[in-house]
Design goal:
- The complex is a heterotrimer of chains A (391), B (581) and C (313).
- Chain A has 391 residues and is of the alpha/beta class.
- Chain A has 2 domains: 2-240, Rossmann fold (3-Layer(aba) Sandwich), CATH 3.40.50; 250-379, Rossmann fold (3-Layer(aba) Sandwich), CATH 3.40.50.920.
- Chain A is 40% helix and 19% strand.
- Chain A starts with a strand and ends in a 12-residue tail after the last strand.
- With 581 residues, chain B is an alpha/beta fold.
- In chain B, helix 6 runs antiparallel to helix 17 (512-520), helix 11 (242-250) packs across helix 12 (268-279) and helix 14 crosses helix 15 (440-446).
- In chain B, 50% of the residues are buried.
- Classes of the chains: A alpha/beta (391), B alpha/beta (581), C alpha/beta (313).
- Chains in contact: A-B, A-C, B-C.
- Chains B and C meet through strand 1, helix 18 and helix 19 of B and helix 1, strand 2 and helix 9 of C.
- Strand 9 of chain A pairs parallel with strand 3 of chain C.
Chain lengths: 391, 581, 313
């Protein structure tokens, strides 16, 4: 049934329908609506789950590690500083192979304070061993959240469902919410790979000496490498039931394009509009939407970009000293390919600045006119500013 | 190794214990259980296993505790009343609060057993061919017969008087040692198979006869005669023998108690005589040449005597007696303290020429005693005469060996020493018969309790006591953190006004509850009581408790030698030694 | 002494603890008091190492290792999972050192006990970061040398009063315990186990290498802390009802300090000042406890074997 929901509520509905058993969360703007709704569901019995009102994000994820070790389905949501505060536990979760699902609402990291959309928070956790899936709209947020549990529990890795603050979290859209029975058909009850139980005592996560640590990490890597394939399997199952699928990447008109824009999240929607305009004008342009960032779907990306002469990677994030993070990953993916395109990189929309169709068009023009890409990302839309210390 | 593929993640989940890590290899000091000697046991002339006795008593195992006494001492009911309990003065607990009332507890255990009519069947070796004659049924003779019969020797005791007991029967007042108590102890000795033949005085002739008809003779005739004062005017009429006075009283004669009596001496006999007179309605004073604190008599007895009205005059020595109007005039020289004697008591000298005169009605001498016959005493050192701490063995052609014991061979004359003498004599004879003369001293040495000279019959018989280290536990070696100050039991007694003209025992029994509490105060120095501190505290779970004490052990596969068991043992029953030693 | 605890061992031999380790003594007695229906959550600490290197485990009950700040939070989540599974027989225990409790784990602990999470949180306190090499923690007492309070720069600050901090949360049960008083420890563990909600046990556990003491006086030294009123044994119910559990043999603080190398630099004046500080704290505690019957107090641990019930008299 279609409902008009904000992105945060879409997440909450998916969590309810996924029959999550333990939820732990600490409030942070712009994630807080998710946990408000879930807390209400737990309190009113709409969900048979425990809601842990923890005192910090570190404890939040730590408590879910405890709960997941106890063999139950778990969920949390956070954002920005909260995610940064979870950093240690992000590693711990993946190392423990616990299929915890998290909704990560992108928000800029301080300092200075800024509550608006910026992907640097989630992308700077790229090495923690979590699967990262970026969403474009409310329906995708809902669907991806459900898929995340199926995927996580299949490969025994945690999944971060990433959505931009306000642009998705607080934007109301019609979202198709299925019935519980339908969801149950898609998502079976959680059957943990291990669970801590006094009837079968063992110790979890004791010291692993150098003689075994590499094998543990390699097993982790093997599981991560399977994720694009497993995600495809999950999507196939999902499509049968719900008639929707997204793909780890979505290649739009890529087969014949000379220039391909690479986007993620809500910028994709704006880029879709630009793409229509430019195609109408006869430009050989295409769009590659990155949904899956971890693992980085190298094969899918290379296949999509194969025909292009130029690629423009648009990042609403920034790794100081290295440029846009998607840019780095795309370049790295292509570097060993024959006939690889030139890869241009652009930084836009940090800290919630609007990324309009005009901004994207400017990027397209710059790419089309450019001969050789800069090693660094090019910053779009910078303004003249005054500041106190410089005066 | 196989890398799990997706469905079976490699999570660090353990599947083994650490028991394959033998951490015992870290150890350089090794703990070991080792029972040691408690000072009380070493201080007890009879070598009673006091620490163990109190341990059993504390657990309510009163019968077992009593039987434990009997292994070393056939007369617990007697000793619980009249022993001078040297055990208490060396008790380590004295440095903590006050010594254990070993004496009171011994009496309690004996009375409890007697009250229940308990019989005992001490370990008894198979019957031997050698028959032993014992002359004198005093504490030494009774003990010698008891231990000899334990070792398998049939014994006949020859006693001149109509009843057995010697000094215990005739020399100690009833209010201190009731007849029934003594009789029940003697009955138990009889039930062990010892024949006691009373009214069978042995003369020097019949003595030689015994040496022909028996394989050995034990001579324990004791000191039956009081020693004279040796002063001018002393006659059998003017100075009466204190021991003889007590004997008559025990025989039922009404004691002389008219007028004013003085008793010369400071030992228990002096006190007994004076108290007997006072309790019979007379008036008596003790005259002693030293001070009260120097008196060999028990402090409690002196205190009771004074309570009961006995007078005490210190630092006076008799010098002459004159008859005066049908009364006696006793001349005394005043003494004073100057320096110290070897035994630590004050040395006395005449206080110039100061004298006192006393007019009295009766004078009793209680300054010592001697053997009734010369041949009772052991021969002087010569070939064939072997001296031991508590007995003398005579081996000569033409007669069975003779072993002299009791007061006539003991330096200190008391019941406990007499028992020690009887026990030692039994061991000496047994070893002589079984292994020959040269084995006697080494075998006795192996049975010494602590630093001696007390001997343990249990050790002699190869019991576990013999396995203990000879180390005497010091107070500093007790972990007093496990003990708290607790008041020592106060000996209950008849009120003073109830003591007169009474033959009732003055010292009253204690309750079982009191006995449990008092025995619970005991440190049980050097003895494991399976308190489990070692087990509870062992960080390596390396202390293994068995069903029985003997099974308790340390698992050296894992023991790291930290020494916590050693420190936390309340009683010093664990030692640490160099690894490999 | 005989403990009213499980006869079985829940800790195997063969662990890697230093000889005489107080933490292990505490853990062994604690787990025997708890029994088999117990899960331990162990944040980074000496115990985290002691309980075994993969694939071995020292413990015969389940253990979940946790990052250092996360003892209370992992335990909270585990409790929630067990509740959802309907497992109400199992007790979840967070077992943390003083660093993991007083310092880095304090936020999670405060949060969890404010939520009155149904678990037992044990802080075994050896008064410094021992596993990393004897660094100062907020539990390190006044006067102590550590590798981060070296030489004459010894710690001149008081130890954090963690018990009062927990009492301030008004949780149902807070108690101190000490490895030298196992019977008291067992009683408190059992009491804690019987109460629903957050329970905090502060167990004083000596560290021979860190305290610079010979291993054989490990327990004795811990006991002296109680005897000197440096580490009083007491319990607080519902944040208000104080009961002092030990009023036995007393010692001056100097006795306790003199046996430990970590205090070897202290002078007579220092001892005097520390004695004053200890007395101040002790008086404060006594005021809170008010008058109480002496029989509620233990004098010392029992030295005696329990009486055989079948053979009394």
């Amino acid at each position: 049934m279609k409902q008009v929901l904000e992105g945060n509520s879409a997440v909450a509905e998916a969590v309810r329908l996924a029959r999550v058993q333990v939820i732990s969360a600490y409030p942070i703007t712009p994630q807080s609506h998710i946990v408000e709704v879930l807390s209400d569901y737990c309190a009113t019995g709409k969900m048979d789950a425990r809601y842990l009102r923890v005192e910090s994000e570190h404890s939040c994820l730590a408590s879910l590690v405890g709960a997941a070790c106890g063999g139950v389905r778990t969920f949390t949501a956070t954002s920005s500083a909260g995610l940064a505060y979870m950093h240690e536990m992000l590693h711990w979760t993946a190392g423990s192979r616990l299929p915890i699902v998290m909704a990560e609402v992108n928000r800029a990291l301080g300092a200075p304070w800024n509550i608006w959309s910026d992907q640097t928070d989630s992308l700077s956790q790229r090495d923690t061993g979590w699967i990262q899936l970026y969403c474009e709209d409310g329906q995708e947020v809902f669907d991806t959240t459900l898929q995340a549990f199926r995927l996580a529990e299949w490969v025994n890795l945690p999944v971060m469902v990433v959505m931009e603050g306000f642009l998705l979290s607080h934007t109301y859209e019609p979202v198709d919410i299925p019935e519980q029975e339908e969801v149950d058909r898609f998502l079976p009850p959680y059957n943990p790979a291990f669970k801590v139980d006094t009837k079968n005592p063992f110790t979890v996560n004791s010291i692993a000496p150098p003689s075994i640590y590499m094998e543990i990490r390699h097993d982790n890597a093997v599981a991560m490498d399977q994720v694009p394939e497993r995600f495809d399997d999950v999507e196939k199952e999902f499509e049968v039931l719900f008639n929707r699928r997204y793909g780890a990447v979505e290649a739009i008109n890529c087969d014949d394009a000379e220039i391909i824009l690479v986007t993620s999240g809500t910028i994709t929607s704006t880029a879709r509009l630009l793409l229509e305009d430019l195609r109408d004008r006869g430009e050989k342009v295409a769009l590659l939407k990155m949904k899956m960032f971890r693992p980085f779907p190298v094969e899918l990306v290379c296949r999509a970009l194969k025909s292009a002469k130029k690629v423009a990677v648009i990042d609403r994030n920034f790794s100081s000293g290295a440029g846009g993070i998607f840019l780095q990953e795309v370049r790295a993916a292509l570097c060993n390919r024959q006939d690889r395109p030139l890869v241009f990189g652009y930084v836009v929309g940090l800290g919630g600045r609007d990324v309009t169709k005009a901004v994207l068009e400017e990027i397209y023009k710059a790419t089309k006119d450019g001969d050789v890409p800069s090693d660094k990302s090019v910053w779009i839309g910078l303004r003249e500013v005054k500041h106190a210390i410089g005066r | 190794m196989s890398v799990a593929m997706g469905q079976k993640p490699f999570v660090v989940i353990t599947y083994e214990t650490t028991e394959s890590n033998k951490t015992g290899s870290w150890r350089f000091l090794k703990p070991r259980y080792q029972d040691k000697q408690s000072p009380c046991s070493a201080g007890c002339p009879a070598g009673e296993d006091i620490g163990m006795i109190e341990m059993l008593a504390r657990q309510g195992l009163f019968n077992e505790a009593w039987e434990m006494i009997l292994r070393e001492n056939p007369l617990p009911g007697v000793c619980g009343r009249v022993c001078f309990h040297p055990c208490e003065s060396v008790c380590n607990r004295k440095d903590f609060d006050s010594p254990i009332a070993v004496h009171t507890l011994e009496r309690f255990l004996a009375d409890t057993a007697a009250g229940k009519g308990l019989a005992t069947t001490p370990q008894k070796l198979p019957k031997r061919n050698q028959r032993i004659a014992v002359i004198g049924a005093g504490p030494a003779g009774l003990s010698a017969a008891w231990f000899l019969s334990m070792l398998g020797y049939p014994c006949d005791i020859f006693e001149a008087l109509p009843e057995a007991g010697g000094i215990l029967r005739w020399g100690i007042p009833e209010y201190r040692l009731p007849l029934a108590v003594l009789q029940s102890e003697i009955a138990r000795i009889r039930s062990q198979g010892v024949h006691i033949l009373t009214k069978k005085a042995v003369s020097s002739e019949s003595f030689h006869e015994l040496r022909r008809s028996y394989s050995a003779v034990f001579l324990g005739c004791g000191h039956a005669h009081g020693a004279p004062l040796g002063i001018a005017g002393e006659t059998p009429e003017s100075v009466k023998d204190g021991l003889d006075f007590l004997r008559r009283a025990r025989q039922g004669e009404r004691p002389l108690c008219d007028g004013f009596s003085v008793v010369i001496g400071g030992g228990n006999t002096a006190v007994d005589v004076a108290r007997t007179i006072t309790m019979s309605g007379g008036n008596a004073a003790i005259l002693y040449r030293r001070r009260r604190e120097d008196m060999p008599a028990f402090g409690d007895e002196i205190a009771m005597a004074l309570e009961e009205g006995v007078g005490l005059e210190e630092l006076v020595a008799p010098s002459a007696i004159e008859c005066h109007d049908g009364r006696l005039r006793l001349l005394l020289r005043k003494m004073k303290i100057k320096g110290r004697d070897k035994d630590g008591r004050g040395r006395i000298v005449f206080d110039g020429k100061k004298t006192v005169k006393k007019v009295v009605d009766h004078i009793f001498a209680a300054t010592g005693a001697t053997a009734a016959e010369l041949w009772y005493s052991p021969p002087l050192a010569q070939r064939g005469v072997i001296g031991f701490s508590h007995c003398v063995l005579l081996l000569e052609e033409g007669g069975a060996p003779v072993i002299y014991g009791g007061d006539l061979t003991n330096e200190a004359k008391n019941v406990a020493q007499a028992i020690a003498s009887g026990k030692q004599a039994a061991m000496v004879l047994d070893t002589y018969f079984e292994r020959g003369i040269d084995e006697i001293k080494p075998r006795l040495e192996a049975c010494v309790v602590g630093d001696g000279p007390a001997l343990s019959m249990e050790a002699y018989l190869g019991g576990p006591r013999g396995l203990r280290s000879s180390h005497l536990v010091q107070y500093a070696e007790i972990n007093t953190d496990y003990f708290q100050n607790e008041t020592r039991v106060t000996q209950p007694r008849l009120a003073v006004e109830d003591r007169s003209r009474s033959v009732n025992e003055i010292e009253l029994p204690i309750t079982a509850e009191t006995a449990l509490r008092e025995s619970g105060r005991c440190f049980n120095c050097g003895l494991c009581d399976e308190c489990d501190n070692c087990y509870v505290f062992c960080p390596d779970a390396a202390v293994i408790r068995g069903q029985h004490m003997e099974n308790r052990h340390i698992n050296y596969d894992y023991c790291k030698g930290c020494g916590v068991c050693f420190t936390e043992c309340p009683r010093h029953a664990v030692i640490m030694g160099e690894e490999g030693s | 002494m005989r403990l009213d605890a499980d006869e079985r061992e829940f800790m195997c031999s063969g662990h890697a603890a230093c000889p005489g380790c107080g933490a292990v003594i505490a853990l062994r007695i604690f787990t025997k008091a708890m029994g088999e229906n117990t899960i331990l959550v162990i944040p980074a600490s000496c115990t985290g190492v002691i309980v075994g290197v993969y694939p071995q485990s020292v413990m015969r009950i389940p253990v979940v290792h946790a990052p250092m700040p996360a003892g209370a939070s992992v335990a909270s989540g585990l409790r929630a999972a067990l509740d959802m599974r309907g497992d109400t027989d199992t007790t979840v225990v967070a077992w943390a050192g003083d660093g993991g409790t007083f310092d880095i784990g304090f936020q999670a602990l405060s949060g969890a006990v404010e939520r009155n999470e149904d678990f037992i949180y044990v802080c075994y306190d050896n008064e410094a970061y021992m596993n990393t090499g004897i660094q100062c923690s907020s539990s390190t007492p006044y006067g102590a040398w550590t590798t981060t309070t070296p030489g004459q720069d010894w710690k001149r600050l008081r130890k954090k009063n963690i018990v009062e901090a927990l009492v301030a949360h008004r949780i149902p049960y807070v108690a101190t315990a000490n490895i030298a008083f196992p019977e008291d420890l067992v009683r408190k563990v059992k009491k804690a186990k019987s109460i629903k909600g957050s329970k905090f046990l502060h167990i004083f556990a000596s560290c021979p290498p860190g305290w610079r003491i010979p291993s054989e006086i490990s327990v004795k030294t811990a006991r002296m802390a109680v005897q000197a009123n440096i580490f009083p044994l007491y319990e607080v119910e519902d944040g208000v009802r104080y009961t002092i559990n030990y009023k036995g043999k007393q010692r001056p603080v100097q006795d306790y300090f003199e046996v430990q190398g970590r205090f070897s630099h202290l002078t007579a004046e220092d001892f005097e000042q520390i004695q004053k500080m200890v007395e101040e704290d002790w008086e404060l505690l006594q005021r809170k406890a008010g008058d109480q019957a002496a029989d509620a107090c233990i004098q010392s641990s029992s030295a005696k074997r329990a009486i055989k019930p079948n053979k009394v008299f």
